[in-house]
């Protein structure tokens, strides 16, 4: 058996045995265990020692011994009488806390003993009484006291009464502490803290200030709602002041509570801490943690308050009625939680505001007020307030929700830069039903709203962007929809309606140009409206299927507001209609389209240029003045500002001189100064010329083209050019009662001229092609007497002068009737074009021709030609001529045409600046013309020369005349001066039946040939007298000479000389009297052969002179030169024969008389009495 292992074990054991005792040695504990052991033992010894000392002190200091000691020390230390009923310390029963109880304490101040009797009379009777209470008890935590910390717990103050009385700022009853002295002992004070504090019996406090007579009493009583562990009280105020919090006067009775821990640390003797302090006022309850430092001045180191689950309804019910009277009837279950935390120490004496973080949270709840009912309302807001820089504060709206019958929206975002330039960023979704908004709100509005608005938008905006220089910086993306919107003004002066309108806006749009260039970062707005109407102050606008688009650059470079920001606009609609109820005018557009682009003018960054394109399928304008219709119009417009305003030479010189003297001034400022200087010079000139006679101007001699103030500003400072085209147009107006139609309208324009190209015009039965230029209309719109110029070429197929002239007369008469108060033609939308045309025609038929006035400020040069011209009963072919208008006159030059009746050539001057200054001068040449047509062409000549009605055939005639015109457009025959030459061959003089009778009586050779071989006569009219110069013509076997005169009343004085006849001697026939009472007698022949040869050739010369005179008057103007009357009798008054004077041979002999009796030309004389008796006897 192997025994080695056993031996080894034995050896080991032997080695562990103590050499002296033979027993095993005890093992030593580690050092750290021994240290812990001695620390614990020492601490326990100290605790036992402290407890023993405290217990011994409490056992020795019984209430009977302790009470007088405390009372004596307090009285000696304070400037007051201190009375204490009992002071008791309890330790073992409240171990490990030391309980202190003080009963019946009273402090009577001595600080008012030195005042005068007068001052004493101003104070209350109990002014010396400062403080009293029934009992005060609390607990001192002994373990904390061993750590040099005084922790007071469960402090209970029963029924304290505080009475504070102030005589002035330096004398009061609470000034009872002795002056402070420096302490030699630098032993650190222990930290002191208060855990709980309660007033089971309430508190009474009074404050009186003799300086301002403030008298206030406060009473705090325990609340019936107090719960275990919380101290809750009711605050009751009295006296002549009410308790205010944040400027709001609280009710006389206020429930409040406070409970928490107050901490004072010895190493910070001027610091005071409040931890987990539960404060409640009425329905408000919060937890406050703060740290205050009173070292130099009161400074709030930290401040943290949390208010949770406050009922909004309870707050409203708790506040005084005068503050919440407007919220009467509000019902809500909303609750609010708020928190605030100071982010930097705040000194109360600092002018700056505190800096803090805050949050407001309102869980979803309901709210109803009047007609507004919110089924859900919620709020979650946080932010930071920078007290030293309010502009650096921020507000973060995490969630703002409101859902109800009238409104519903949700918003989340942030607000910054609150004072300098508020910035709003966020997302908005919501809508509003206008018809269900609160009546309190709607009653304050001047209109009634109905409809619904829904909006979804992303915002990044600031206040400074909402102006004309920065609006392009707005960053708004979203959409707004308006449905069944209706707004009615309360005074029924207007309304707005939109069935469905959608507004889309964005700031990140882009597009590609036709040249392939990418244009991005655009601020765009688009509006789509299916049906809308607007009526306000008599102005109405309706439309359907309307679209509007707007885009503007939104890049960072756009921040320079001194440069032009490119912009684009596009507008289209299915139909638009504008109505002005004040004058019953309206404009209707079918399928209008508007495109506009604003860019920089040439290389200038500060001068904008707008290019616009406007088109429509149809445009119709209606007013009391007429109707205008255009089909497929197209307007292209280019608009840009002028470097300097338009002005006349004198004003321009003043402008240039001021610019040279002050080159830094802006153009508009220079223009204002120039106008003032120009006005001053004009006033001086007027004063100097006041004594000079001034021409009188009738109010009707000028067309007022002047524009209103806004248009004048545009004309002065802007340049415009463009082109207008239209497929067809129509104009119908009672001022020119014809159906006027234009086709292929092509008009180009700029600020000085308007160019018309190949535009077809049809007025009634007349059709023309118009080409030419209208110029100087800008000056005419800026200055009263500036003339508008027309240079037109009128080429026509047919021109009906009768119709055109009658339309002008009827239009003038219609205007005259309106001025006299007559009713206007109804031009309403309910009247069709055909019915309206009939009304216009009826109005024209009822009108009496009125004065056709020629405006002084209208210059025209019309080059006219037409294949066919209708005038009176004539049809003119190959019509050519020039019509000019200048300063109240119309001049017709070389108007010529061929007719079936002969050739016509006319020169005329019609002057009519006013209705009392109307004159006419004319020179007419007729070649190979039917005399019957001549009578129809000039019916006035027919009334003066009725004998012309007995002649027929072709004649050559020249006529010159001047006359005044009555306002009814009749000639003033009293002013008529005229010369007429008539030449003709083979003229039929008498109708065939009459001719047969006379041919037998006068023994004509050819009794079938009723014709004059030739005639050449001259006629003069002047001073109401018509004179026929002597002329001779052959008629069958007779040669006759005729001369004579008559006045306009047809008192005749004519002589017919029979120079050749079957009778072998010459004789004359004298005709006097009227047509109804004519006396004819025979006499000698007065017309001699040489008289016709010697007659003055007046007509041709006078016509040439008259044309020159008309040209002179036209060029100088009717105000400066007047058309002179013709000298119709020649330069020598002896040219006119004296019809009343006898000439040699005026009587005939007895033999001649017997021959006339024999031939039957004269009746035989009556028989004598003797011859009568002889016949009877036979």
Automatic annotation (TrEMBL):
The regions listed as transmembrane in this protein's record are 35-61
UniProt keywords (A-Z) are: Membrane, Transmembrane, Transmembrane helix
* Cellular component, GO, one term: plasma membrane
Query: Which ranges are annotated Low complexity under compositional bias?
Result: 7-16
- Claim: S-adenosyl-L-methionine is one of the keywords in the record: no
A Gene Ontology biological process annotation? regulation of protein targeting to membrane
Residue ranges, annotated region (Disordered): 1-25, 1158-1178
- InterPro entries linked to this entry: AsmA-related (IPR052894)
PANTHER family from the xrefs? Answer: DUF748 DOMAIN-CONTAINING PROTEIN
Question: Could you tell me what this protein is called?
Answer: AsmA-like C-terminal domain-containing protein
Taxonomic classification: Bacteria, Pseudomonadati, Bacteroidota, Bacteroidia, Bacteroidales
């Amino acid at each position: 058996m192997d025994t080695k292992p056993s031996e080894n074990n034995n050896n080991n054991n032997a080695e562990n045995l103590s050499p002296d005792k033979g027993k095993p040695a005890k093992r030593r504990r580690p050092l750290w265990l021994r240290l812990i052991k001695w620390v614990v033992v020492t601490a326990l010894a100290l605790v036992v020692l402290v407890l023993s000392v405290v217990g011994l002190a409490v056992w020795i200091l019984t209430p009977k011994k302790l009470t007088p000691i405390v009372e004596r020390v307090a009285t000696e230390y304070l400037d007051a009488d201190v009375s204490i009923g009992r002071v008791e310390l309890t330790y073992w029963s409240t171990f490990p806390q030391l309980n202190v109880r003080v009963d019946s304490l009273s402090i009577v101040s001595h600080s008012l003993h030195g005042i005068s009797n007068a001052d004493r009379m101003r104070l209350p009777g109990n002014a010396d009484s400062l403080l009293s209470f029934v009992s005060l008890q609390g607990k001192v935590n002994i373990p904390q006291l061993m750590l040099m910390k005084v922790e007071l717990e469960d402090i209970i103050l029963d029924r304290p009464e505080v009475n504070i009385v102030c005589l002035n700022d330096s004398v009061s009853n609470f000034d009872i502490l002795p002056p402070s002295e420096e302490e030699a002992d630098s032993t650190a004070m222990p930290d002191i803290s208060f855990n709980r504090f309660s007033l089971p019996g309430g508190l009474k406090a009074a404050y009186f200030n003799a300086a301002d007579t403030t008298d206030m009493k406060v009473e705090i009583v325990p609340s019936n709602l107090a719960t275990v562990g919380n101290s809750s009280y009711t605050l009751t105020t009295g006296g002549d002041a009410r308790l205010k919090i944040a400027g709001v006067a609280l009710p006389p009775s206020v429930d409040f509570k406070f409970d928490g821990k107050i901490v004072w640390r010895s190493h910070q003797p001027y610091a005071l801490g409040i931890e987990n302090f539960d404060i409640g006022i009425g329905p408000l309850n919060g937890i406050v943690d703060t740290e205050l430092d009173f070292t130099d001045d009161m400074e709030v180191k930290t401040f943290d308050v949390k208010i949770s689950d406050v009922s909004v309804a309870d707050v409203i019910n708790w506040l005084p009625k005068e503050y919440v009277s407007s919220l009467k009837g509000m019902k809500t279950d909303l609750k609010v939680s708020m928190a605030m935390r100071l982010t930097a120490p705040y000194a109360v004496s600092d002018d700056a505001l505190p800096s803090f973080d805050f949050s407001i949270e309102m869980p979803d709840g309901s709210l109803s007020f009047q007609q507004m009912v919110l089924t859900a309302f919620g709020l979650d807001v946080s932010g930071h307030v920078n007290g030293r820089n309010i502009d650096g504060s921020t507000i973060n709206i995490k969630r703002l929700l409101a859902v109800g019958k009238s409104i519903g929206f949700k918003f989340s975002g942030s607000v910054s830069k609150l004072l300098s330039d508020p910035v709003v960023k966020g997302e908005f979704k919501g809508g509003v039903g206008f018809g269900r908004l609160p009546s309190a709100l709607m009653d304050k509005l001047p209109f009634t709203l109905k409809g619904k608005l829904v909006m979804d938008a992303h915002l990044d905006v600031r206040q400074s962007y909402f102006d004309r220089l920065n609006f392009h910086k707005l960053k708004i993306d979203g959409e707004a929809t308006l449905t069944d919107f209706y707004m009615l003004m309360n005074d029924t002066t207007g309304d707005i309606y939109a069935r469905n309108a959608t507004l889309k806006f964005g700031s990140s749009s882009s597009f590609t140009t036709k040249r392939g260039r990418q244009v991005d970062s655009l601020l765009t707005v688009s509006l789509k409206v299916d049906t809308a109407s607007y009526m306000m102050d008599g102005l109405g606008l309706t439309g359907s299927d309307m679209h509007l688009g707007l885009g503007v650059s939104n890049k960072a470079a756009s921040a320079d507001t001194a440069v032009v920001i490119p912009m684009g606009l596009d507008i289209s609609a299915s139909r638009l209609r504008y109505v002005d109820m004040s004058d019953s005018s309206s404009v209707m557009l079918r399928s209008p389209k508007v495109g506009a682009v604003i860019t920089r003018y040439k290389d200038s960054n500060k001068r904008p240029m707008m290019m616009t394109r406007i088109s429509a399928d149809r445009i119709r304008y209606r007013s009391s003045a007429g109707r205008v219709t255009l089909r497929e119009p197209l307007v292209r417009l280019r608009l840009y500002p002028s470097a300097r305003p338009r002005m006349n030479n004198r004003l321009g010189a003043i402008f240039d001189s001021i610019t040279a003297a002050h080159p830094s001034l802006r153009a508009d400022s220079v223009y204002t100064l120039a106008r003032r200087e120009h006005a001053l010079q004009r006033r001086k000139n007027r004063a100097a010329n006041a004594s000079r006679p001034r021409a009188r101007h009738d109010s009707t001699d000028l067309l007022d083209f002047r524009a209103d103030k806004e248009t004048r500003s545009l004309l002065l400072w802007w340049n415009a050019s463009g082109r207008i085209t239209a497929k067809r147009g129509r104009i119908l107006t009672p001022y020119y009662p014809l159906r006027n139609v234009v086709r292929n309208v092509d008009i180009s324009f700029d600020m000085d001229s308007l160019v018309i190209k190949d535009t077809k015009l049809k007025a009634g039965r007349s059709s023309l092609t118009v080409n030419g230029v209208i110029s100087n209309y800008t000056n005419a719109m800026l200055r009263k007497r500036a003339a508008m110029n027309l240079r037109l070429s009128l080429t026509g197929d047919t021109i009906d002068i009768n119709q055109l002239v009658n339309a002008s007369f009827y239009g003038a008469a219609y205007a005259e009737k309106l001025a006299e108060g007559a009713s206007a033609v109804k031009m309403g939308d309910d009247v069709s074009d055909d019915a309206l045309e009939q009304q216009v025609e009826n109005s024209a038929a009822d009108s009496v021709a009125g004065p056709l006035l020629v405006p002084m400020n209208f210059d025209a040069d019309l080059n006219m030609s037409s294949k066919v011209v209708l005038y009176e009963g004539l049809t003119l072919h190959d019509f050519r001529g020039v019509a000019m208008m200048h300063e109240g006159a119309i001049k017709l030059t070389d108007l010529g045409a061929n007719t079936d009746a002969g050739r016509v050539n006319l020169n005329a001057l019609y002057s009519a600046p006013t209705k009392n200054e109307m004159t006419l001068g004319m020179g007419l040449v007729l070649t190979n013309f039917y005399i019957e047509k001549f009578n129809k062409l000039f019916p006035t000549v027919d009334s003066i020369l009725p004998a012309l009605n007995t002649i027929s055939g072709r004649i050559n005639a020249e006529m010159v005349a001047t006359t005044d015109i009555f306002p009814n457009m009749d000639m003033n025959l009293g002013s008529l001066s005229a010369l007429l030459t008539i030449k003709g061959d083979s003229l039929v003089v008498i109708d065939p039946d009459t001719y047969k009778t006379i041919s037998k009586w006068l023994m004509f050779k050819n009794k079938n040939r009723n014709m004059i071989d030739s005639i050449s006569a001259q006629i003069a009219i002047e001073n109401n007298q018509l004179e026929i110069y002597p002329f001779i013509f052959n008629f069958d076997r007779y040669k006759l000479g005729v001369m004579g005169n008559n006045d306009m009343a047809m008192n005749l004085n004519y002589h017919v000389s029979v120079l050749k006849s079957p009778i072998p001697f010459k004789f004359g026939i004298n005709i006097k009297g009227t047509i109804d009472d004519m006396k004819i007698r025979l006499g000698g022949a007065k017309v001699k052969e040489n008289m016709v040869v010697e007659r003055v050739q007046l007509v041709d010369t006078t016509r040439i002179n008259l044309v020159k005179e008309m040209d002179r008057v036209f060029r100088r103007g009717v105000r400066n030169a007047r058309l002179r009357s013709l000298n119709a009798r020649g330069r020598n008054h002896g040219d006119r024969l004296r019809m009343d004077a006898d000439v040699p041979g005026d009587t005939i002999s007895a033999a001649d008389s017997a021959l006339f009796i024999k031939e039957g030309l004269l009746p035989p004389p009556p028989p004598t009495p003797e011859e009568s008796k002889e016949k009877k006897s036979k």
